[in-house]
Amino acid sequence: YQWRHTKDTRLSKFNQTEIKAMLGSYTKVLFVRDPFQRLIATFLQGMGSSPSFSSFVQDVLDSGTHNTSVAWTPLVSLCRPCLIQYDYVVMFGFQRQELGHLLRRAGLPVDSRLPKFTDTEVLWTYRWLSEQMFSELSVQQKKQLSRFYRWDLAAFPFSSSFLSD
Q1: How many domains does the chain have?
Q2: What tens digit of pLDDT does each residue of 96-131 get?
Q3: Is 165 contained in some domain?
Q4: Are 136 and 58 in contact (CB under 8 A)?
Q5: Number of neighbouring beta carbons within 10 Å of residue 53
Q6: Is residue 112 part of a domain?
Q7: Which of 15, 17, 18, 125 is most deeply packed, by most CB within 10 A?
């Protein structure tokens, strides 16, 4: 299907037989991150024009699932985990361990190719940030965010997410 595949071609442009054949020839890796942590990272990177995290979250909620940024769109809308059988799902915060496993499975040397991750520090920092940012939100915003990301929370093991409470 090389003749139909370009940089801008979406999977949806192919029929089911072509999609199955293409996806069957790849090792499919999905990188996932707690949706609340994605929101925090997006806000901290200045991708929203809101002055506070609470107003940023309200902007996200007001936009709904239409015309949303990829930075905060629910993952199940982006990667279709119910339709595509991913070979690996790598959780944010466990990259060093899981990428090392992937490299070994591919027969590649782990130490020379793997960047230095500090997974435990990243997890602790995001836990602290999540607590601070979550406390800024109203009860209604918390409920709306949990509903907005309900399919992500159901599809992936984000058991420690503030949104799964």
Answers
A1: 1
A2: 677 778 878 877 777 655 566 555 666 677 788 889
A3: no
A4: no
A5: 21
A6: yes
A7: 18
